[in-house]
From TrEMBL:
It holds the Pfam family BPD_transp_1. It is found in: Cell membrane. Residues 32-220 form the ABC transmembrane type-1 domain. Belongs to the binding-protein-dependent transport system permease family. It is a multi-pass membrane protein. Keywords: Amino-acid transport, Cell membrane, Membrane, Transmembrane, Transmembrane helix, Transport. The chain crosses the membrane at residues 31-59, 80-102, 199-219. This is Amino acid ABC transporter permease.
Length: 233
């Protein structure tokens, strides 16, 4: 009945077109001003945490390995939504109040750091031991070998899964709406609450998410092609 009226009723078509066009720009602004910056910031911080955690996991120091393993286990073993709620709603009971923006940054960064650390650790382990031995044979220290030989090769290996992680983060930022951070999905909730056209507005938000992910997938393909180890002759 709903679809039949939509396709046959000109007044309904005009109404929905007006809602779609009037809400499109606010949603795009929400994506450009809030969703994408939040994604970029948290992914960058998460990569730093991931590299540190991965190196700690590979360290010969038992304490470092234990701390890193506990961090990864806790973050990967609990839902991201619960982590955000603990930071934003739970910490105030201890006298620590954090704004929605910084709560989102902390939550997403910790989450990305834990998940991406396993990607980076696996990439480092994928490098043949002969690379380490060759580096040591020419007088490099472990740190020098890691910086000049191992990490550049591990970067190539980790680019595809890290790109997928970045695209997933774009969609996961919608969870920030639950802690009142006004990103794109939160904006769609506000618009839908005014006109009660939840299906239309949420579908429009989904369309924008999809468009962003398609664009990022295109960039990902280009980057992967440039980072390939072997070029077909």
């Amino acid at each position: 009945m709903y679809l039949s009226n939509l396709f046959t009723n000109p007044d309904m078509q005009e109404k929905y077109l007006d809602i779609f066009t009037s809400s499109f720009l606010p949603l795009v602004k929400g994506a450009l001003y809030y969703t994408i910056p939040l994604t970029l910031i948290t992914f960058a911080i998460g990569i730093v945490l991931a590299v540190i955690t991965a190196l700690m996991r590979l360290s010969n120091v038992k304490f470092f390995r234990g701390v890193a393993r506990a961090y990864v286990s806790i973050i990967r073993g609990t839902p991201l939504l619960v982590q955000l709620f603990i930071i934003f709603f739970g910490l105030p009971s201890l006298g620590v109040t954090i704004s929605p923006f910084y709560s989102a940054i902390i939550g997403f960064s910790l989450n990305m750091g834990a998940y991406n650390s396993e990607i980076i650790r696996a990439a480092i382990l994928s490098i043949p031991k002969g690379q380490w031995e060759a580096s040591e044979s020419i007088g490099m220290t472990t740190a020098q070998a890691l910086k000049r030989v191992i990490l550049p090769q591990a970067t190539r290996v980790s680019i595809p899964p890290l790109s997928n992680s970045f695209i997933s983060l774009i969609k996961d930022t919608s969870l920030a709406s639950t802690i009142t951070y006004t990103e794109m999905f939160r904006k769609s909730q506000e618009i839908a609450a005014q006109n009660y056209e939840f299906l239309l507005v949420y579908s429009e938000a989904a369309l924008i998410y999809w468009m962003i992910c398609v664009a990022l997938s295109f960039v990902q393909d280009r980057v992967e092609n440039r980072m390939e180890r072997y070029v077909a002759k």
